[in-house]
Structure formats: structure tokens, C-alpha cells
Amino acid sequence: MPAEANGGVLEADVVVVGAGLAGLVAARQLEGAGMSVAVLEARDRVGGRLLNEPIGDGKVVEVGGQWVGPTQKRMLALAKTVGVETFPTFSDGENVIEWGGELRRYRGTIPALGRAALLDVAQAQRKIDRLARRIPPEAPWQARGAARLDAVTFWSWMRRNLYTRGGRELIRLAVEAVWAAEPEDLSLLHVLFYTRSGGGFDMLLDTEGGAQQDRFVGGSQVVAERVAAELSGPVVLGAPVRRLSQSGESVRVEADGGASVSARRAIVALAPALCGRIAYDPPLPGLREQLTQRMPNGAVVKCMALYDEPFWRAAGLSGQATSERGPVKLTFDNSPPDGRPGVLLGFLEGRQARRLGAVGADERR
User: Fold this and answer.
1) Model confidence pLDDT, tens digit, residues 264-308
2) Contact at 8 Å (CB) between 266 and 15?
3) Domain 67-109+208-217+298-365 maps to which CATH number in 3.40.50.300, 3.90.660.10, 3.40.50.150, 3.40.30.10?
4) CB of 61 within 8 A of CB of 334?
5) Contact indicator for 64, 50 with CB cutoff of 8 Å
6) Within the chain, what is the greatest distance between any pair of CA atoms?
């Protein structure tokens, strides 16, 4: 159960650092195996990158992760177990693309931008999927030629395997949408691993039948909140961990606010970049430290516009749009299940997110 940090030493079989989904599910499984668990969370809430934002009348939008697709079976099973239902992302009607200074309507995942570009994208996707099938998702570093694949950026691969400007721009838009990064920021191995894990390149992009197919009733953060509420051990909020020390068969985790946990084992369920902010005694191995330093997060800003109703639906539009120019390059209909109010969600990703994230809120608007 969530509680505020108030000092004192807790004792448990295992201490989990981080109350995002990974940390909460780890705690849930450990308790299911009969172990005592204490969870320490830096924020004043659970959910990590899942965060609901109220918009009135008991309704919310998600300013963090929000979608779930048919290949994400563990997440769907978890939501069902804690009683959180899903509803389909609105996708009826035509999509819009801003291309070459013009607005065009289209249906499906890939806009019709000419036969050459479509054929180029199709052949590139086939190559990506074929290469991805060689990658073991549980251990991508063991794939044949993994070192070579990891030494190549996805942009370098695109330059050699896409032959039209339209094809390259469409795949770039897809990469920014899925990874919140530029193709030159990603290794080919990582793209192939992610594609294999997600069930194919198309699956990562699609709404109906794909990774953006469904949303959670009440917002995605509800899943994390319900998992936390079912834990019998403490979930201590407002307790950023600063130090983790190991001695013999025990570990001690110390956090701000005087919170401290003594346990037999520790699980650090944080993004790699955040793991590096903890002082370890004894220090982590050098290779592990370097890995932490070389795994930055993507960059994404979600922007939402609220209207009395989703006016685009009456115009035969789905609310989904893409733009080669930006700064918003991707939009979705993000309205609540009953369609009121109308919510249009726009993404700033990669370079655009970094650029506009550095300016004030008024200028960003």
C-alpha cells in the first residue's frame, strides 16, 4: 500500500526501487512467491511513465504512456486481473497528411504518396521484418552478427536500402513516432529487436490490430494504482533512493526523507539513465556503468487540445494526421470513451521535443 516517507528502517526479503509498472509487477510476483517486499518511489505517486491528467467530470487524459495492442499480452492480462477495461482508439474515417505544402486525405497506415514511394516503403519494411526475425527478443546481443548490426545506425541502413525521398521521409516519420528519436540516434540492432518484440514493423505503427489499438478506461495509470493497492508490503512515496550498499548477504537502500530498507536482495526498476544517479557500494562494474551512460531515453512531449466535441468526426476524419514539416508530426483522437470532450493529441518527438522542451511554456504553446 502507498505511504509517505517518514524515516525509520524497514526490513524485507526484497527491496524494489521504483514504483513504475516494472517495479510494481516485480513486487507483485515476489509477494505471490511468499516473499516480503518494500517499494521505494521518488515521486509522490505510482506509475512511473504512466500519468493521468484530469479534464473535468471525472474524466482524464494520459500525459504518459497510454496505448496497448494485441501483442502486449502480459499488459492486457495484468489489466484484466486488476479489473481495468479497455476501449478502442477512435480510428473511423480518413487520415490526413501534410506533404509538400499540401493536405491530403488517405485511409490505412501508409499514405498514398505515389507508386514509387509506396513500393519503396513496402520493400524496406519486408527487409526490416526479415532481419528482425533473426533477433532473439530475450537476448538480442546473441543474434548472429549482433556486433555489426549494433555498430550501424538505422539512418545508415535507410540510406542504403531506401531509394526515394518519399520512402525515406515516411520511414523517418515512422521511427520518430515509435521510438521518439531520430533514425541516426538508433542502432540497427535496437530497431530490429524492438520490431521483433512488437510483432513486426506494421504492428508498431497500426491502430486497429496494432500497438495503438486500445486505451484503458479511466486512464493507464489506474493499472499501476490498482497493482500498488493490492500489495501487502509498503510502497513508500517521496523517497528518491540515493545510496545502495551491499555487505555479505544483505543490502541496504537509503533514500531522502530518512527512509531506509534492509533486505536480502534489491531490484532497481528504473530507466538506465536514472540508475546512474544512485551511489553503489561496492561500485558497479565498469561495463555496467558504461551501459548506463550510453542508454538515454527518447524525447517526446504530448500536447492536447480540448474541444466541446470531436468536430473532425463529423467531417469524416479519424483525428489521425502526420506531417513531414512539423513541429507536431503526429496526431490522434484522444477523446474519452463517450467522445466528450473532443481531445486532439499531438506529439513533439525527437529533435522537435528537445528544441521546444527547452523554451518556456508560453512560447511552446
Assistant:
1) 999 999 999 899 999 999 999 999 899 888 888 889 999 999 999
2) yes
3) 3.90.660.10
4) yes
5) yes
6) 67
